Amino acid sequence: MLRRQFIISTLALSLAPAAFAQGYGRLSQGDARSGIRAALDTAARLATNRLGQTDGFFADPAVHIPLPRNIASLQSQLRRVGMSGPVDDLELRINRSAEAAMPEAGRIFNDAVQSITVGDAVSIVRGGDTAATDYLRGRSESRLTGLLRPSMETALTGSGAYRAVDAVEPQISGGQNLLGSLFGNRSATGSLRDSVTDHAVNRAIDGVFHYIGQEERAIRQDPVRRGTDILRRVFG
Q: DSSP E strands: which ranges in 15-106?
């Protein structure tokens, strides 16, 4: 019985390329992989270019990065008394940092796209409007997070976001006011930096995948945006 199942499975695998080509006209499995790679490369490039502009994150409600929840709560309370300037500035600088990190994000996505296998590509072609985006996120998000973090740290430093965190350090270390009650003592500043960095990286990746998915839908549905012969052959 096991031998019979093995023979059947082997035969099915040997026939898969022909079956795929028959089901999709002249489209081969190699074409499927090339098409998916081209689609994701195009989608990622358009998404990171869009978000890498000034106000790409900050002025876009769909991807704007708010402050982490604990700081946002503080921001809300300080705003009532007209004292939210430093944390408002921190929010702006976090978004500016995400915008500055997008060129590196684009390079990371490009590398990740090249790892798509033939088998994965066939499933993606047959999938829904964001099948390629979902695949890319599922297979690469943790790696992308690790690779993007140094770039985000550089951007947070360059934008002055870390200086904005440090600006409230005396109040945090004092422990006698609202900031002190939320964050405890001076040692919290280091963990606050880490929290801000993690939050910025995660929300930036959310924003990129949001627009990669949007671009993938457009590539699948709008012939004008397919641009290349391979994309028209795969999604036409």
A: none
Would you kindly state where each structural domain of the chain is located, as residue ranges? 30-235
Calculate mean pLDDT across residues 78-93: 84
| Amino acid type, 193 | R
Sign of CA dihedral 91, 136, 145, 151: negative
At 201 the pLDDT is 93
* Whole-number pLDDT of residue 151: 87
d(CA 236, CA 226): 9
CA distance 132 to 130: 6
3 Cβ partners below 8 Å, 6+ apart?
Answer: none
Give me 132's structure tokens.
């390629």
Which one-letter amino acid corresponds to residue 166? D
- Taking CA atoms, 97 is separated from 4, 5, 7, 58, 196, in Å, by 59, 55, 56, 10, 11
What single string gives the DSSP state of each residue in 171-185? Answer: HHHH-SSHHHHHH-S
- Rounded to whole angstroms, the Cα distance separating 96 from 83 reads 22
Which residues, in sequence order, are CB contacts of 182 under 8 Å at separation 6+? Answer: 70, 73, 74
- Tokens read off for 210: 């949001």
Q: List, for residues 87-118, the tens digit of each pLDDT value.
A: 888 889 899 999 998 988 888 888 888 888 88
Between CA 94 and CA 198 the distance in angstroms is 11
- The whole-angstrom separation of Cα 168 and Cα 189 is 9
State mean pLDDT over 202-222: 90
Model-level pTM?
0.76
